[in-house]
Amino acid sequence: MRHINKILQYTLAVGFLSVFSCQSLVDDLDEDPNNPDSAPAELTLAGAMVADALVHEGELARLAGMWSGYFTGSDRQYIGLWRYNSTATDFDSPWGNLYYGVVQQTRIIQEETQETNNQVLRGISQVIEAHAVGTAASLWGDVPYRQAANNEEFPNPEYDDQLQVFGDMQVLLDEAITNLESGNGTVSADSDIFFDGDDGNVVPATWVRVAYTLKARYYLQVGDYAAAYMAAQNGIDTAEGSVIMPHGASYLGNMNVYFSFLVFDRAGYLTANNAFGPQLLLDRQNSKTDESARFSYHFTGSIPERYDLNTGAAYASEASFPLITYEENLLTLAEAGARSQSFAVGLGHLNEFRAYMEAGGYIGAEEDDVTMEEYLEADFQSGGLENDGDVTQDQALLREILEERYLTFIGRLMGFTDMRRTMNETEVRVNVPANVGSQLPERFIYPQSEVNANTSTPPPVGVFEPTDVNQ
Amino acid sequence: MKNYFQAGRLLLLLLLFIGTVAQAQNKPISGTVKDAQGDPVPGANVYLKDNPSVGTVTNASGNFTLEAPNGAVVIVSAVGMDEQEFVVGAQSNYTVALTGIELETVVVNALGFETDKDKSAISSSTVDGAATVQSGETSVLTGLAGKASGVLIQRSTGDPGAGAYIQIRGQSTITGSIQPLIVLDGVPIYNSNVGASLADNNQVDGVAQQSRLNDINPDDIESIEVLKGASAAALWGTRAANGVLVITTKQGKRNGKINVNFRSTFSIDEINIKPNLQSTYGQGVGGEYAFGEIGSWGDRIASRSGEADVFDTDGARFVSDNSGETFYPITTKNSQETFLDENLDDIYQTGYFWDNSLSISGGNADGTFFLSLSDLDQQGIIRNNSDYRRTTLRFNSTKQLNDVIGFKTFTTYTRTTSNRIQQGSNISGLNLGLFRTPPDFNNEDYIGTYFSGPNALPEFGRHRSYRNPIGATETPRYNNPNFVVNENRNTTTVNRVIATVEGNAKPLDFLEFIVRAGVDYYGDRRLTFFPQFDASNLGGSTQEQNLSETQFNLDVMTRLNHQFSENFAGSILLGFNFNNRRLDNLSFTIQDFIIPSAPDNSANATAENADPFDEESIIRTNAGYTSIDLEFYNQLFVNLTGRAEAASTFGSNANSVFFYPAASVAWQFTQLDALQDNSILSFGKLRAGFGIVGIQPVPYATNTDFVNGAFAESWGPTLDAGFYGGSFIQDNIEGNDELRPERKTEVEGGLDLRFIDNRLRVSGTYYYNQTVDALFNVATAASTGFTARYDNAATIENRGVELDLAYDVVRTDNFTWSLEGNWNRNRNEVTDLAGAESILLNGFTGTSSRAVEGQPLGVLWGGLYARDEAGELILDANGFPTQALEEGVLGDPNPDWRGAIGTRFTYKGFSLYALFDHIQGGDVWAGTEGALNFFGTWDYTANQSEAPVNLVNASGNFIPANTPFRGNIVDFGGGPVALDEAWYAGGVGGGFGSVSEPFIYDATNTRLRELTLSYRLVSEGFTRVTKLASLELSVTGRNLVVWAPNVEGFDPDTNLTGPSNGRGLHYFQNPNTRSYLFTIRLTY
Questions:
Q1: What backbone phi and psi angles, to 5 degrees, belong to B648?
Q2: Is the pLDDT of residue B80 over 70?
Q3: With contact defined as beta carbons under 8 Å apart, do B718 and B711 qualify?
Q4: Which residues of A touch B11 (CB under 8 A)?
């Protein structure tokens, strides 16, 4: 037995010696030969913008579209979703893209630009972040913001109060404006998908206007109409100043997300069969308004049972997608103006919008195709074109502006947001009918991934429970 | 390296010192040891009974020389043979004949060395190479099915060359590979299924990928040792957590004669279970015919007038390229014709393969050779582009240069080409379009020219399908199955070389040096081609992929053995292992062809539609190891092993070296005096083992990467910043510099008994293992900025029992009847998942196979019906179930137990063999059935029922009493309700409803896996006339009968997600097959 012990001892000693001496054989092989471990902040910006576009143009927009009466779920799982049968897992993917794709990346840019002092880049990244986080707060209510995207310090980010997040967005956008106006730094054309680095202007004025439009959007959402009107006056003032996601013909590359879904990924799932929105477009014709061009821009089909999204126009492969736009800003001015200033101010901005549409507008129509003549005060008085006597003149104008907003936001998240914001204004709101039952959805559900992995996630709230700002 | 030689020298001195005891009156003797056939037995031990330290080992010719005193008793023993002894007398030359005891007496250990099974404490199953050949399976892997206890083999599909899933003693990792390590002739080789695993994000669609083990010619295999326990496998450290398959290939015999073997097998294959489709109702919706409609909820076909259909011939039309026939839109459907069988027959055929295998082998005292050639040419049961061809060449040789130095070489080359078929959840897939086709639609004409009006210009190459019946749109919505089999191409061409060289030096009887080096290389060139107007690639798409993996493995070993006394012997092995695995993947994808008909070339698309891709990785492992065997009183056997290992995949903040110890003990208690020569109990052995094995992290997970800014949403659409000027963003998976290997610790105990002169053999093992630090992408809340972190986080337990039984019921000269069986059960539980509720292993957003804390691994997960606290369904106002807010566990795909029984009768030259296997329990998600309910093509959706009372349907509409309707009557607890179109096509638990619960079935099944009748002619007269040693003819039926009482329309022995970690999913994968094989085997 003694011999055995000796053998064992020798064996183990020799074995260990050789392993440790050979450890060097495996060193330095953990560097990934496929990917870098850092990237210049400027190069990260386009990624954050793309993620932000997907969040606003993708599944959230389609779901919101079905829940806002624009579209219909006609096949497989979309039938259930159209009937408001959604579950927490439906939101894992867009929430993930929103937080890791946008917030995490913009925070990285903001940290990097502290060192390089590229304030313009930081400002743009702040606008993108505010766009995404504001959308999250609008759709889900309380959401992580202050502790978000800071894994080392906050592995379980707190959910901030919805109103606080909207307040924080105003602060963030003000910082963005300060940064953008500082004149420090630049962004190259390659890194800025939307404005090519604002053509190298020292102060990227286009981005400043975008920031103001977003400020106005968020003031509007919390019902601060005066502040919204103020902000919107500095907002986007030309169609060219709109943040619009450009698209191309490449599937899984730069193809319009609606087109990809409608034609490549899930043909037949999403239609506009019997939907409320397209019918409203056709039903609101009057002597000053002909919406057939806008209908054809969005939809095809001659009978309501067979309405489809038009994959040759608004949802074409190369059709760009509106994110923060001139038309939104005009209609913010109109609504906030009508609510906080005067009938005349509101009407003035509405007519500004109508004139823009008459000239082709955001649908890029030929001038002759669109009829949107100027409205006069008389049109809103009892017995006028837009008032059969059921409401006051002010209400009639507001009703028309809200309807205009509803139709302008076809396919965009803003339509869903407006619907929920005006839910209690029964006399002026757009009367979107419920797809099933009598209740309209008021929010999206917290994703399963948060429920599972973030201990700070609030208890589940159903889709029919209004968020704080809409209560 | 130097260290090892020093160690060797030290040990050598040590053993020399204690080992040599000289005796004065010795005389030289010599001799030859032969086996029962008269062939020399090399490596037999020859030693003095009184002084076992005096001994030698026979050389390659079976010869030995020894100095021994007159009258001494000399013992001759060899592995797998009965011991013999002789007394040294006047003569100086002795011939000793050893006879085998005709049992599986040899086991091959983890390092490829043969040891005596009766002295081994490890639990393993030995499968004879011939048994896998006889099974009729073209792959070694599937050939193992039912032949070893505790080993679950499940095929992906019946496609030629498709891969298979192997699971030994339960799943013990979440996202790591679940495949055992394959050690071929002592060297690890690849059994990759690149493209089939979770990591490749190719889970529920695409083609069935091959298992690389399929590249081995089953006819080249001598034996397969399935090392199940950690104690047996621990010498392979982090590569052995799923067990080890030790495969030994054939060598020539040293009998001075050339042996020629030729085998030719012809097999006829057919689809074994067809889906249950209805042909009562036609295309349409709401009970009315609708041209081009998605579902088959139309009118009753038998109620149609039977006259010709009425067409609208004034507008658009389609002229078929296939038949020249012109198709117009149907305005009134009158025809009663149905095409269910025709549509299936267009796609499915009787497949076949022809497998020819030739080997020439021989050898003499100095060396042997084995040369083989084989060719397998298979046409699948799916017409046209489903085939598999494997050609192999092997040359094995041994050469003994002198008494000290010898070499072995093993070289094989394999070329595999295969055409595969798109399957699964895939609108370009085969069965998805086929099974959804309404029974009154004929798929035959699938391509042609479309005219949008009477005088319109032709639009060529349009794809006609049931949803695009005159090719009016560019998209067929679902591919016509004829288009899939005729136009899509998915080829793979694999060239593989495995070369192993082993050098062996034995300067002294008790000392041996072994150097073994092996290279395994394969290159796999894959093409995935979708023509223009393919449903998911309207502009066409080509992907070409060049994938290769290269593995280099080096072992340097020293082995010492010594018989210390009659009652105590020992051996020790010291080794060093270096292993390097390199993967290269270069590919490109183009879409939207410039010229649709141009050859496959990356230039056939605009620059923005061309997407190159490349990936490389290196995983390097190196280790030192030792194995010590001790033998006491010829009845107690102890094996201790240890491996210390470092690898490139460990995090920089983790330990750099991990130690994998193992110990096993076997006690042959029948060697006790009291039990010796017992007439009932011939042999008894108790064994126990303990071991630790591991699984390495995936490479390059230790740092957080920056990656291309591409984002996908769950429904498919993707935006890629590469199309917007390019961007690098921080990855959504956080790097982890503390990564360490998963560690699986196992203890086991077992008993091997043989009764009545070894005629009844029983063996049982109980094991328990626990994997800690199991690696997976721990989902993190995206609000932290990452969606996942790859981490050592889970704990999994398996425990189970394995039983093996063999009984030679009748054993006479002319007639034998034997039975063999195995049974095992495994219980698995994920005991800790680091707080994660569930982890997707594979599957769909709606239904998937997952890891869930407190549940067995792989449980089926998805939407459930809402239930109250008492477990009763919560019904809506109409009496229909409602959907639970949260998803949950639907079922468990892990079987309760599995067993197999084989029986063999031989009478003279005849032999009849049957193998049944049974899988008890285990759930499967019948996703195909679910989907086809939605479409109204699954058979029971066409049932005609009559409402006994006023019945409400899922839309809340009433079906008046005594009215017949299409559908079924079910009582969910609130009184009978009607399941009709409203339920199947739109209800919560309907075909595409949010609840998967109705489609979970118990997959219990029994199959007659194999039935073989053979006749072997070996008579002397035959030999004299033909010069052939033997001729064997056999007929085999494979998978002849499957009884699966609760599952209809498919074989549960297939899996949508192939050999991946997710199981129990059925969704339009290609079907399984049944075969009839005819074999002739000639031996010269």
A1: -75, -10
A2: no
A3: yes
A4: 7, 10-11
Q: Could you tell me the two tokens for B325?
A: 């026939």
Kindly write down the DSSP assignment for every residue of B387-451, as one continuous string: EEEEEEEEEEEEEE-SSSEEEEEEEEEEEEEEE----SS-TTSHHHHHHHS-TT---S--EEEEE
Q: Are strands B968-971 and B964-966 parallel, antiparallel or unpaired?
A: unpaired
pLDDT in tens, B915-942: 999 999 999 999 999 999 999 999 999 9
Q: How many CA atoms lie within 13 A of B365 on its CB side?
A: 11
* Beta-carbon separation of B657 and A19 below 8 A: yes
Per-residue CA distances from B789 to A450, B559, B735, B831 (Å): 14, 44, 7, 20
The β-bridge partners of B905 are B817, B912
* pLDDT at residue B58 greater than cutoff 70: yes
User: Please, what is the angle between helix A59-67 and helix A41-57, to 10°?
Assistant: 30
> Which residues of chain A neighbour B427 with C-beta distances below 8 Å?
267
Eight-state DSSP code of residue A195: T
Chain segment B974-1009, per-residue pLDDT in tens: 999 999 999 998 888 888 888 999 999 999 999 999
- Taking an 8 Å cut-off on Cβ atoms, the answer to whether A19 and B717 are in contact is no
B341: number of Cβ within 10 Å: 12
Q: What is the SS3 assignment for B581?
A: strand
What are the structural domains of chain A? 1-21+38-244+444-471 (1.25.40.390)
Contact across the interface for B836 and A452, Cβ inside 8 Å: yes
Round to whole Å and give the CA distance between B308 and A443. 54
Out of A66-70, A444-448, B251-255, B626-630, pick the least confident: B251-255
C-alpha to C-alpha distance for A184 and B24, rounded to whole angstroms: 101
Task: Nearest by CB to B592, from A44, A93, A249: name it.
Answer: A249
What is the count of residue pairs from A and B with beta carbons less than 8 Å apart? 351
Asked if the interface predicted TM-score (ipTM) of this complex is over 0.90, the answer is yes
β-strand pairing of B847-852 with B838-843: antiparallel
- What does each C-alpha distance from B194 to A134, B154, B639, B850, B934 come to in angstroms? 42, 17, 37, 21, 33
Residues B428, B429, B434, B436, CA torsion sign: negative
Could you tell me the CA-to-CA distances from B799 to B24, B237, B741, B796, B859 in Å, in that order?
A: 58, 21, 21, 10, 17
How far is B434 from B484, CA to CA, in rounded Å? 10
Half-sphere exposure (Cβ direction) of B1016: Cα atoms closer than 13 Å: 13
Element housing B811 (H / E): strand B788-811
CA distance B210 to B194: 8
Average pLDDT for runs of 10 along chain A of length 471: 52 55 68 88 95 98 98 86 88 96 97 92 97 98 97 95 98 97 88 83 88 98 97 96 94 94 89 96 92 93 92 95 98 98 97 95 81 94 92 96 98 97 95 94 93 90 94 86
- When pLDDT is averaged across residues B684-701 and rounded to a whole number, the result is 92
The whole-angstrom separation of Cα A57 and Cα B590 is 25
Run of H or E including A355: helix A343-358
